[in-house]
Automatic annotation (TrEMBL):
GO biological process: regulation of DNA-templated transcription
Name of the protein in question: AAA family ATPase
Keywords, sorted A to Z: ATP-binding, Nucleotide-binding
Superkingdom of origin organism: Bacteria
HTH luxR-type domain location: 860-925
Taxonomic source organism: Streptomyces adustus
GO molecular function: adenylate cyclase activity; ATP binding; DNA binding
Length: 928
């Protein structure tokens, strides 16, 4: 690579400008970003501010300061906001030759998104990983700085992809610097990235900039007024310095009113352009509506309009265009001013020329923009074009094109259908606010029950994605009643979704009850021939269990779980992992639960479906907790949080770690998580979070020996039936009831346990049943029952319940004065609990062990190596035999980031080979 500023791609060339004044804090932030890139790391910064405040100037400053880096530029174009992945295509165009070097899934995803092949669309986060890998690979050859201006005019998919890239960067020699106007675009896309808001220059800095731009005398009072009137807006000051007369600057004649700032500044540019010849104005409008890098499209349309390069000369002379071989606006704000100032007639004329010279997928849009009223023919072309966008995974583009098609549709019913289709596309893209807006437009003109049902399902989907199931079951039952078709599939789909919402909402749903919803679903279910991976049999089994009782539901649940275990591939859909987790707990089948969740995690990784992957990892974390693998559970939580942050989806804080906090005795964190879960249950109608909170809190209270408190929580969960998720709490309720002096409550739990555990007949169920019988036993039968409990629980990966049974058995033996026998059980329980970090139960076991006359030797895990959760997760994957590239693909990061983590793992563990990782980690965490 040659030294100096390497322009790989540029929408705005680095032209000389006025000297940089002020902005010390911003320049320091940019300096830190560049230093991080030079040190082999990555950094991201978003500059926000009003028009003309100096964002573009700071981007130019960054480029000037990065002469030893590869500098890549991209500018959003307002006219291109509907073209999904259009801006990303422009950014990545110089590097598309590297596509074959990407992992195949990433290569296919990016090819499909950019329309380079006919491959089916992939999840947009897999596209994001492909873009990240492509840019990171390019930066490996030469550290890179990407400057992205006017992000408010990026199409949604490109913006989301670049924000995703920004969140996943770590050790990639790559810096991203974004700039955009506040109040435009989607603020959520870049909202959680590091940002600086630019204000006007301070008084002395603004006066210095103004003085630098004035060639004659500048009256001090005039300067003060200009600074105050513009709020220190740099572009406004520079425009005033050039355009005010010498007598105005000297204070001899009055200043104009109002001064050009913000909207007035844009009006100033409009007026300047309006003074140019007509053909020049047309050329400027054409330039404002085409990407700067697509000069061929620009001049094809110019030819259709009878324009030539000579038409640009007056604009160059007026300072509106830069001088050079490429026609470029002097400032991005001028592009916006020209576009917004154009009359409807002028816009239609230019759009017609663009339609005549554009590719088919763009032609329909240009024709639509040229239409001056309803046009069913153009609407039909748009609908066809939307299918092309969908084929590339451009769901935002599909939605925008369908919305425009609806606007051009004459018939109200057909118009409403297209609005609904557009809303469905927005739902797929994750733009929930747009879904709501389009539903409001469509609803008054829905022409039949099918359209009304579709609208209801869309509303229900929005509520579920916002974790607000309270009204969804009743809403979907109404849709079922509205169906006039005898199609059983359509009826079942609605009832399946209603059942899931009822399970998640529980007692918090309104307008119906979980029992009513489940009965409707169970009665409608027809066991048709379905793929093994279909979620329908499991949902039908859950409905059957709630509606007709455990005896009817347990065999169906067991069969559905067994069926899913045989599936070659599963897909997370509609939070299916949550249903799998609940079903597995309901029949105490930890092995089926683990196997199915692992398949869902693998499928999520393969498809790049990060939202579903996040949910599956949360469910898998609880499996790890029940097996005493707290460190592995923590890794699942860390990875899930990472993906939630990367995707910008609902952020749950730490409440999903409540069960881990309970077992590890982190009381403050647990109580904060429980408070959050209960508040969410009340505000959103998510009864399931209330039950999860109760489960975690009761385990913690039992560990601390606060049995009355534990029982109070358990009784509230127990009373929730027929809604699921009470059964795995039954053993704890028996113990808490007996120890709290509430035998009636213990008997209630025991009755349900005696009914259900034999029907489930899994080792986990039978082991807990034997434990409960031992607790209730009055004589020596308890010893046999405790031994039976331990023997059953040893068969399945539920190490914490196994240790719990040993603890209770040891306590029973000690009370029988059999101290030697008690020590065996208590020592095993203590060492297990202590090694995992299960503090409340370890302390309880330790106290019992001390009472037998033995001193408990504390086995503190060796943590001197200090691996971070991310480093430990990478190390575990490396120990499993994965290569760095495979780890990168699994964690949705770059190979450079994995290599960096691995280097730190080697240094901290004091090893030089991956073969030693597993042994070394075993030394640092004996509980895992």
């Amino acid at each position: 690579m040659t030294k100096g500023l390497l322009m790989v791609w540029s929408d705005v060339p680095a032209v000389p400008g006025p000297p940089m004044v002020g902005r010390l804090a911003e320049r320091e932030a940019i300096g830190r970003l560049l230093a991080s890139v030079r040190d082999g790391f990555s950094a991201v910064l978003v500059l926000n501010g009003d028009a003309g405040v100096g964002k573009s100037r700071l981007l130019r400053y960054a480029a000037e300061s990065a002469r030893d880096l590869t500098v890549v530029r991209l500018v959003g174009v307002e006219a291109e906001t509907r073209l999904s992945y259009g801006a990303l295509h422009r950014l990545l165009r110089p590097y598309l030759g590297r596509l074959p070097t990407l992992p195949q899934r990433q290569c296919d995803a990016l090819n499909a998104a950019l329309g380079l092949t006919d491959a089916p669309p992939s999840d947009r986060h897999l596209v994001g990983l492909a873009a990240l890998t492509l840019l990171s690979d390019a930066a490996t050859a030469a550290p890179m700085l990407c400057l992205v201006d006017d992000v408010q005019w990026l199409d949604r998919e490109s913006a989301e992809t670049l924000a995703f890239v920004g969140r996943r960067l770590y050790a990639d020699c790559l810096g991203l610097l974004f700039a955009g106007r506040e109040g435009t675009g989607d603020p959520d896309v870049f909202g959680d990235l590091p940002a600086l808001r630019l204000e006007g220059l301070a008084g002395h800095e603004a006066r210095a900039l103004l003085s630098a731009g004035v060639t004659g005398h500048l009256n001090r009072t005039v300067a003060e007024r200009l600074v105050a009137g513009t709020g220190g807006n740099p572009l406004a000051l520079l425009e005033l310095a050039v355009n005010l007369g010498s007598e105005q600057l000297a204070g001899v004649t009055p200043l104009p009113e109002p001064l050009p700032v913000n909207r007035q500044l844009e009006e100033h540019f409009r007026r300047a352009a309006a003074l140019l010849p007509a053909d020049t104005q047309t050329l400027l409008l054409l330039m404002a509506m085409t990407p700067t890098d697509d000069q061929a499209a620009l001049w094809r349309a110019a030819g259709a309009l009878g324009l030539s390069i000579r038409s640009a000369a007056p604009a160059v002379a007026a300072g509106i265009l830069n001088r050079g071989t490429t026609a470029e606006f002097r400032h991005p704000l001028i592009r916006s001013a020209v576009h917004s100032a154009a009359s409807a007639e002028e816009l239609r004329r230019v759009q017609t020329a663009l339609a005549a010279t554009s590719a088919p997928e763009r032609r329909a849009w240009h024709l639509a923009e040229a239409a001056d009223g309803p046009d069913d023919g153009v609407a039909a072309e748009l609908e066809a074009a939307s299918e092309l966008a969908q084929a590339r995974g451009g769901y935002s583009e599909q939605a925008l094109v369908l919305t425009r098609a609806a606007e051009l549709t004459a018939h109200p019913g057909k118009r409403a259908e297209r609005y609904l289709d557009a809303a469905a596309a927005h739902l797929t893209s994750g733009n929930l606010a747009a879904v709501q807006a389009l539903l409001e437009l469509a609803t008054p003109h829905l022409s039949g029950p099918a359209a009304r049902v579709q609208a209801t399902r869309l509303r229900a989907s929005v509520e579920m994605l916002r974790a607000r199931p309270r009204e969804v079951p009743a809403m979907l039952l109404d849709a079922v009643a509205d169906l006039t078709t005898t199609d059983p599939t359509a009826r079942w789909d609605l009832l399946r979704e209603a059942t899931q919402a009822a399970i998640i909402g529980g007692r918090m749903i309104t307008g119906t009850t979980p029992h009513e919803v489940a009965k409707a679903a169970a009665d409608a279910w027809q066991d048709a021939a379905l793929p093994a991976g279909s979620p329908d049999p499991l949902m039908a089994a859950l409905a059957r269990s709630i509606a007709h009782g455990y005896a009817a539901g347990a065999p169906a649940l067991a069969a559905a779980l067994a069926r899913l275990r045989t599936a070659d591939e599963l897909h997370e859909q509609d939070a299916f992992s949550v249903m799998v987790s609940i079903a597995g707990d309901e029949v105490w089948d930890i092995e089926a639960k683990r196997e199915i969740l692992e398949k869902l995690v693998a499928a999520g990784r393969a498809r790049g479906a990060l939202y579903g992957l996040s949910l599956a990892l949360l469910a898998l974390a609880k499996v790890e907790i029940w097996n005493g693998r707290f460190a592995a559970a923590e890794s699942c939580f860390v990875e899930s949080d990472d993906y939630m942050n990367a995707t910008g989806y609902f952020r749950s804080g730490d409440f999903h770690k409540a069960l881990l906090y309970a077992w590890t005795g982190r009381e403050a964190e647990l109580r904060a998580a429980v408070a959050t879960m209960r508040a969410m249950s009340d505000s959103h109608g998510t009864g399931v979070t209330y039950r999860w909170a109760g489960q975690a809190l009761s385990i913690f209270e039992i560990g601390r020996g606060r049995y009355r408190e534990a029982l109070d929580v358990q009784l509230a969960v127990f009373a929730d039936h027929p809604v699921t998720l009470g059964d795995i709490n039954l053993a704890g309720m028996v113990e808490a009831g007996l120890r709290a002096g509430a035998p009636a409550a213990a008997a209630l739990a025991m009755e349900r346990m005696e009914e259900r555990a034999p029907l489930a007949a899994t080792p986990w169920a039978l082991g807990l049943l034997a434990r409960c019988r031992a607790l209730m036993a009055a004589g020596d039968d308890a010893e046999r029952l405790y031994q039976e409990s331990i023997a059953q629980l040893e068969k399945v990966p539920v190490a914490v319940d196994l240790a719990w049974s040993r603890l209770l058995f040891g306590e029973w033996l000690r009370r029988r004065k059999r101290r030697a026998d008690a020590r065996v059980q208590l020592r095993s329980a203590f060492e297990s609990f202590e090694s995992w970090g299960a503090v409340p139960f370890a302390e309880r076991a330790k106290a019992e062990l001390l009472a037998t006359g033995e001193t408990a030797r504390k086995r503190t895990a060796d943590t001197r190596f200090g691996l971070t959760p991310q480093e430990r997760h990478v190390a575990l994957l490396a120990a499993s035999g994965l290569t760095n590239a495979e780890i990168a693909g699994q964690l949705f990061v770059t190979t450079s980031t994995v290599e960096f983590h691995m280097s730190r793992v080697f240094r901290k563990l004091g090893i030089t080979s991956r073969r030693h990782i597993e042994r070394r980690l075993g030394e640092t965490d004996p509980g895992d």
